Amino acid sequence: MKNEHVWHSNESLLERLKLGDLDAFNVIYERYWSVLVNESFKRLNNMALCEEVVQDVFIDLWQQRAVRDIQNLEAYLRTCMKFKVFEVYKKNRRTKSMLEENLSLMQKNEISEYDQYAEKDLKSLIEEWIAHLPQKRKEIFKMRYLDEFSTKEISEMTESSQNTIQNHLGISIAKLRKLIIQHFLVFILTLFY
């Protein structure tokens, strides 16, 4: 029994992990998965995103097992999780900023005559995409980007938390960005072939 406790100590698990012991990795995973998900949920308030962040932490732990000199396993995992959460914040902020810049460009009519066809095509693509959004996400997206309400105002009008509103917008923007990139890749390929 005492020997089993030694095998399950963080120090022993780290030693075995460095050697590529999958059982040690699984023990670490089971020990810290829910702790990290709960901690990241306090910051992101989106369970799917939290699970993705924590999964990335464990993938990095396994891939870097031989080169990292980890002294305190829990502190290391929590720090990795915080960096991953920060990356999510940074990515969401950058995506939101890019979408707002593009929408602003269209509203100011700074698009040349040559690009009017592309603008029309893009608008119809976005309108069609909006039409297929789930009802709540559609309402939130329209309120934010067409009616120009702040997330706080939308939160009050829909009686939802501001984090919920931001999560809906983040998901929408990520999917819209992917759609636009795919659309324009096809458009560019048709120009050259």
TrEMBL record:
Q: Endoplasmic reticulum as a keyword?
A: no
Q: Name one Pfam family in it.
A: Sigma70_r2
Q: Where is the RNA polymerase sigma-70 region domain?
A: 29-95
**Keywords for this entry?**
Sigma factor, Transcription, Transcription regulation
What NCBIfam families does UniProt report for this protein, alphabetically? sigma70-ECF (TIGR02937)
Q: Which family does it belong to?
A: Belongs to the sigma-70 factor family. ECF subfamily.
The name of this protein is: RNA polymerase sigma factor
Q: Which organism is it from?
A: Sphingobacterium anhuiense
